[in-house]
């Protein structure tokens, strides 16, 4: 039996599938169902395999959509799955692999069909397909059960109650993935969905009482970072000669069906895919958690999953004060912190870290209390350092995380006490030893410079400078290179300011000379933005000089070395007030150096600066308000976050593929 992906074409030839999609109804008790769900496969783990599978499923699912109102076979398939979920926990305890295997296969079939149904019909029509009964039952009383809600509740129960073991890994993955599929109606809507049957089932229905357990389980799935078990643990071994991979009694099933589902199995690209997605359950659980946490609040009821994310506590929190929140729970913060540090290369982990720091005060307090802050900050800095390779949303999230952290003065002090050696990913200059604080300054300045030459995003500038401003009063022992880069950034801005000013002057002269009514280019706006950035950088330098001059001789040295840069701004109306302090410092130290003589060595200059820093009377420097910036989400943050989260599902969901032509929520050039 081959495992080539070309065998997807066999799906349409499978007699079992043909029977399922035919108009003829099949009773729930027929042996057919055992045959149908007794195939062996490894679920697709990459979008290429998922695309092949979906393209094979679509025409078959469309036939089922046409015939299901008469046959009711889709609802029967769902009930077959539900019947097996009731015994899953016991089956796990008894190591009953056959039972788990069949339940998994039934759910996989439901998931594949649902994915096409959701693309082809409204939620109301989908709900009808769950309610169609076999014609033989049409004379009976209509069923009072809501099968769609029953399925959703069973999936949630499965996720929270079935323990994560090698034999349950794949069915837990399928349960998480199926919930993502059910919520994927949002992908096909341009507007943010604020209501719907599936939304109500998850936020107000029977699932509501399981909210905290679901969030906790998804978080622990992310934290545990369990790799997908090797195929031997979930693919049944050959039963004698010619038996294929089918298990015992199931060996009579036509091979044409299960061959299709060997995508990612032996002989295919599974090795490569496993490297790309070695943690499918962890990844999918995180995506589902982000989708649930970003569901919109209703007018009379807040999103319970967001509430759970906001209020959960550390398992070590022994406080006896009961939480007023209904969905609170406890989780091991140390394990969570470790997972967040290790997985920052992915957009979704950075987004989770942002969400927790911004919304959960318990997590924020814990993170800021850590003595190994470099474990978290270094991966964030690496994201920013490789800004060219990252999408803009990932860069924004990393920057805002830094901005949130720098709101805390203890953080701003402690990062200058953490010494780092040989930063391998920082390639512009060999940094044999540097403080975490100085490295943060270097990376943020580099991000500003990249933005100036490439994206020219005003908000990115603002967030970068706000983080530096928050830190500025606590700058300590700045590395020589960090001090140089601060002044170099000022030099670059000064040069840009002069260039725009010159262009504006020349343009004005040409326009006046021509006198033909030609519109004047809007250089005034460009000039205003540059002057705003220059002003903020001068305030950062001033804040450091006023609060910690004696701790930063390297900044004073860099300031003196490039003092001519500041001459032109001394009388500029936008900068006159802030320039007074810089003039005072430059004049004071220049005089001390003149008194020390000529041809001074670098070491001697630094010695003079250190002694002068202690002698400079603080009252000679004008007091300015403390620089403090606080991150605040804009109004209606869901307009940004919901498309962002779903773009992550679209691009990073393991074994998921959507045709981009039907996506309405975001443009295809989104991250």
Automatic annotation (TrEMBL):
<dbReference type="InterPro" id="IPR019142">
    <property type="entry name" value="Dymeclin"/>
</dbReference>
<keyword id="KW-0449">Lipoprotein</keyword>
<keyword id="KW-0519">Myristate</keyword>
<dbReference type="Pfam" id="PF09742">
    <property type="entry name" value="Dymeclin"/>
</dbReference>
<dbReference type="GO" id="GO:0005794">
    <property type="term" value="C:Golgi apparatus"/>
</dbReference>
<protein>
    <recommendedName>
        <fullName>Dymeclin</fullName>
    </recommendedName>
</protein>
<comment type="similarity">
    <text>Belongs to the dymeclin family.</text>
</comment>
<dbReference type="GO" id="GO:0007030">
    <property type="term" value="P:Golgi organization"/>
</dbReference>
